[in-house]
Write a structure and sequence with these properties.
By secondary structure, the protein is mainly α. Helix content is about 70%, strand content about 0%. Strands 1-2 form a two-stranded antiparallel ribbon.
Length: about 220
């Protein structure tokens, strides 16, 4: 049995995995269809991120709880039924909370059912781990996906409309970059973020390699 400090560290690593090391958007490049389609504004991005996180956490928790009861032959079908159930719940909740957001997200709410992030977490992680570890990992992945969407949505809304969460930033004289609210704008912003993530990753690797060399030189 792991010590309390080790268990806490392990859970923190599980949580941070989805935010940085295996970020669904910037590292694994999963869920690109909703990422590019709904990220024209920060509100849409945040709404889709929260909806996906809710489905991810609830579905993986249930998968973890029944992992020993589901026969291997029908596990994928079972996971899809579970995910579809929670997607239906989210669909009705968004309709009840805001019809404007529901109309903006459109069919991409229902497409959460086939999101590779959720089905992948159910098969690769939830089906093999206890509930607490599963929930921590799912929260990290969901938050990482939300941050990825929000990063794209905020940039596209700022340059494409001169606003952020609907609030004007630059006044009436600002000339919006129309391309940012069009499909090519999503690819441009995503490419820029991927470039930044890869640069930070390579810089971290280079720094890790330089430290042992410096220690060897001083010795």
């Amino acid at each position: 049995m792991a010590l309390p400090g080790q268990t806490q560290l392990s859970h923190m690593e599980e949580f941070m995995e989805g935010i940085w090391k295996q970020n669904p958007v910037f590292v694994m490049v999963l869920g690109m269809c909703p990422t590019l389609a709904v990220s024209v504004s920060a509100v849409n991005s945040l709404s889709m991120g929260i909806a996906t996180t809710f489905v991810l956490v609830c579905s993986t928790l249930l998968v973890s709880l029944i992992r020993k009861l589901v026969p291997k032959e029908v596990r994928i079908a079972t996971y899809i039924v579970i995910i579809a159930t929670f997607v239906t719940v989210v669909d009705y909740l968004i309709q009840a909370i805001s019809l404007a957001v529901y109309d903006a997200l459109g069919a991409f709410i229902q497409l959460i059912v086939v999101n590779c992030i959720i089905l992948g977490r159910a098969e690769a992680h939830a089906s093999k781990n206890p509930p607490l570890r599963t929930v921590v990992n799912a929260l990290g992945m969901g938050l990482g996906f939300t941050l990825g969407l929000l990063s794209l949505g905020a940039v596209r809304e700022i340059f494409g409309a001169g606003k952020l969460f609907g609030f004007s930033l630059f006044g009436p004289d600002f000339q919006p970059w129309v391309v940012m609210v069009l499909p090519p704008g999503g690819f441009f912003v995503l490419g820029a973020w991927l470039l930044l993530f890869n640069w930070l990753k390579n810089r971290k690797v280079d720094g890790a390699l330089v430290k042992p060399l410096e220690g060897h030189t001083h010795a």
